[in-house]
């Protein structure tokens, strides 16, 4: 007899084990209350991902972005559909989005996803996007099947497999806390649900500049001697002259995993 690993049980176990307790919506909202104002500054732009999604949205009448946050993807995609809904349970993240002056055809909807999935007032959309927003949902099966019901043409799930910046990856590895492989988890969940899907990895780049070595080391926060940190990060660093002296340009590539599930109306 083959023993099938239960991805939904594994996912739930990982989510409930997170010490911050962010699977409780009020905890997640409190997290974003503290982070919303600095979220954008800490996030890379995703030009290749936006370009790919725009291509797939051609002809779509409506787009629902679930966990839209500050609109990092919603806003650059907004002109690709006649009707856009940015749904999020964090009023603070949505306040940042609103502050950017969204177009009139974009509806901002502050709602818990679990409630939205059963809300007759939220109609299906041609395309549904969930980008890095399912991470703390204990019931992944209910979320995916609910999102698919809302997606007439396409459901797009965006995640990573924890391979972000070299310094954070190393910091977590040294602490024995590698990031969960969420993109792989989502793929396994789609397989378990018998949902065929397209999977691709889009490469994006991130660049930070530092006025001097001290600033770079302060950002890296690695429990290693300075020389070792510079050696490890060396392949990603190029000298960068600033008015104040010799600094660093720190650049790395990372993969965005995109999972595309076709809806019944595709
Ligand atoms: C990591 S941010 C990603 C934001 C945006 N998609 C992006 O890529 O920049 C996750 C967002 O999902 C929202 N979110 C998480 N769980 C949610 C839930 N259960 N219902 C509604 N929104 C949720 C959070 O409030 C947050 O704004």
TrEMBL record:
A molecular function GO annotation: methyltransferase activity
What name has this protein been given in UniProt? Class I SAM-dependent methyltransferase
**SUPFAM superfamilies reported for this sequence:** S-adenosyl-L-methionine-dependent methyltransferases
Q: Domain of life here?
A: Bacteria
User: Where does the record place the Methyltransferase domain?
Assistant: 64-152
Q: Name one GO biological process term.
A: methylation
The answer to whether keyword DNA damage applies is: no
């Amino acid at each position: 007899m083959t023993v099938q690993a239960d991805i939904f049980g594994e996912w739930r176990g990982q989510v409930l084990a997170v010490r911050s307790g962010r699977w409780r919506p009020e905890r997640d909202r409190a997290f974003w209350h503290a982070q919303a104002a600095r979220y954008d500054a800490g996030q890379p732009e995703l030009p290749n991902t936006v370009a790919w999604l725009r291509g797939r949205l051609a002809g779509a009448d409506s787009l629902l972005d679930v966990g839209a946050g500050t609109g990092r993807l919603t806003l650059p995609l907004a002109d690709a559909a006649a009707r856009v809904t940015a749904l999020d349970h964090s009023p603070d993240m949505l306040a940042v989005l609103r502050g950017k002056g969204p177009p009139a055809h974009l509806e901002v909807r502050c709602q818990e996803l679990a409630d939205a999935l059963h809300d007759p007032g939220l109609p299906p959309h041609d395309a549904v996007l969930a980008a890095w927003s399912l991470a703390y949902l204990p019931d992944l099966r209910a979320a995916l099947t609910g999102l698919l019901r809302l997606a007439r043409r396409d459901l797009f799930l965006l995640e990573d497999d924890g391979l972000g910046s070299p310094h954070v990856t190393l910091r977590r590895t040294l602490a024995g806390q590698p990031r969960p492989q969420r993109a792989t988890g989502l793929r396994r969940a789609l397989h378990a649900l018998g949902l065929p899907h397209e999977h691709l990895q889009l490469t994006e780049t991130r660049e930070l500049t530092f006025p001097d070595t001290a600033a770079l080391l302060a950002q890296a926060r690695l429990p290693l001697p300075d020389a070792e940190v510079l050696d490890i990060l060396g392949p990603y660093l190029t000298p960068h002259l600033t008015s104040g002296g010799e600094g660093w340009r720190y650049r790395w590539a990372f993969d965005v995993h995109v999972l595309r599930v076709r809806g019944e109306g595709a």
